[in-house]
Amino acid sequence: MADAELLILGPTIVSMDREERIIEDGAIAITGGAIAAVGSRSELSAVDAAETVDASGQLLMPGLVNGHVHMGDSLFRSLVEDLPLEPWLERLWMSERAFVTHDNVRLGVQLALAEMIRSGTTCGLDMFWFPEAAAEASVDAGFRVVTGPIFFDFEGPDGIDNPDRLAVGEAWFERFAGEPLVTACVEPHNALTVSPEMMTAARALADRHDALFHTHCSETATEVDSTRDRFGHTPVAHLDELGILDGPTVLAHCVHLTDDDFARLVRTGTGVLHNPLSNLKLGSGIAPVARMLEDGIPVLVGTDGPVSSNDLDMWTAMRFAGLLQRGARQDPTLTPAVEIVRMVTSVGAKALGLGDRIGSVEPGKRADVILVDLDRPHLLPMYDPYAHLVYTIGRDDVRSVLIDGRWVMRDRMLTTLDEPKVLSAVRDLSLKIEAHAEEITGS
Ligand SMILES: [Zn+2]
């Protein structure tokens, strides 16, 4: 009998393990969906595998973790443009209310998954209506998703009214408990759309299930001012005063932080989901990521939804995460490339509570790995793999993707999603969305 189901030989391995080893002419053995062995080609030469793949001229690394995404929103990509966040959301929600159904969200998620897998993303923290549609579509596509019950004070397009959201949330945990590709978390929208009582109840729900808590926080100056006006605190302080930050929490954006906010994030070990493209495109500002790193705050990189940053390309997000701090503070030593790579692999996985399962290429971890073609003019020579990952490699360089030991893209072919069918269905639906938008805006 073979020692391993799959043996990949010859890639340069960027392991992101504890020693952050980079192994030239490396090899990994995979069995039962997990990484069984990692080393050089010669170290693994005795492994007997059912299938051996030659990946010479490629780079193998942990799959990218997208720290903040709204997959279902891909249906509305480029529908609303060039408005400030608050009126932009108002307008977007008019279309969402008309078209956000379980089946449409599922289709939007499939579209997003095709895009994400194609670009080397293997795990995403998703927040959207009908989170069960995201979970179902992710499981079907073999994608690792972190998502769960959402909270708003008003009745959403899902037809669930505020008081019922807790019971729906409990049922969500029951339904997806034990599903290996789904990690549940609790996701209120933000401090202005979710009352303090519901925020606290959502935290309690997360705690009952030992789950992560995820919300938007301090995205714009307007949001900070409005939260101050209503509650007398910044959004971070408001959440902290409610006791929300006492359990495992990640906050999307944190663009506008006071010294007191920093102290609260550090004291509670709260993670920040940095979405550089969305923050720039919506004119929200530049999150003080360099200071977060100096203070030891875990930072992840996300794309945010395709409605705000227009695509789900983690390579562009990584590049902007690296460039922005240097430009903003006029200091080229900030955010070294390896720090950015940690955000989307080892550090990111740990902050989502998945550090023992994914985020590095080492024995015992689930086999969520990607292969990137290096044999291309823009990628040679490669003296510093981390600089390549942040500043040179793009999504079209990703060649193959494994999640939980299963090929989800092999030599650029998606293996778990019917891509032509998804694209055709999205094209049909987009005509209806566009017609409805013209009707409500009169243009
Ligand atoms: Zn968001």
Q: What does the secondary structure layout of this molecule look like, with pairings?
A:
Elements lengths: L3 E6 L2 E3 L7 E2 L2 E6 L2 E7 L8 E6 L3 E5 L1 E6 L15 H15 L2 H17 L2 E6 L4 H11 L2 E4 L2 E2 L13 H12 L5 E7 L7 H13 L3 E6 L3 H11 L3 H7 L7 E5 L5 H10 L2 E4 L1 H6 L7 H6 L4 E3 L12 H16 L7 H7 L2 H6 L17 E5 L11 H7 L6 E6 L2 E5 L2 E2 L4 H23 L2
Parallel strand pairs: 1-6, 2-7, 8-9, 9-10, 10-12, 11-12, 12-13, 13-14, 14-15, 15-16
Antiparallel strand pairs: 1-4, 2-3, 4-5, 7-17, 17-18, 18-19, 19-20
Bound molecules: zinc ion.
Would you give an account of this structure?
The chain has helices spanning 85-99, 102-118, 131-141, 165-176, 196-208, 221-231, 235-241, 259-268, 276-281, 289-294, 314-329, 337-343, 346-351, 385-391, 419-441; strands at residues 4-9, 12-14, 22-23, 26-31, 34-40, 49-54, 58-62, 64-69, 121-126, 144-147, 150-151, 182-188, 212-217, 249-253, 271-274, 299-301, 369-373, 398-403, 406-410, 413-414. With 443 residues, the chain is α/β, with parallel strands linked by helices. Helix 2 crosses helix 3 (131-141). The longest helix has 23 residues, at 419-441. The termini are far apart. The relative contact order is 0.16. The mean pLDDT is 96. Zinc ion (ZN) is lined by residues 68, 70, 216, 252, 304-305. The site of zinc ion (ZN) has 6 residues, from loops.
Summarize the entry for a quick read:
The protein has 443 residues and is an alpha/beta fold. It has helices at residues 85-99, 102-118, 131-141, 165-176, 196-208, 221-231, 235-241, 259-268, 276-281, 289-294, 314-329, 337-343, 346-351, 385-391, 419-441, and strands at residues 4-9, 12-14, 22-23, 26-31, 34-40, 49-54, 58-62, 64-69, 121-126, 144-147, 150-151, 182-188, 212-217, 249-253, 271-274, 299-301, 369-373, 398-403, 406-410, 413-414. It is globular.
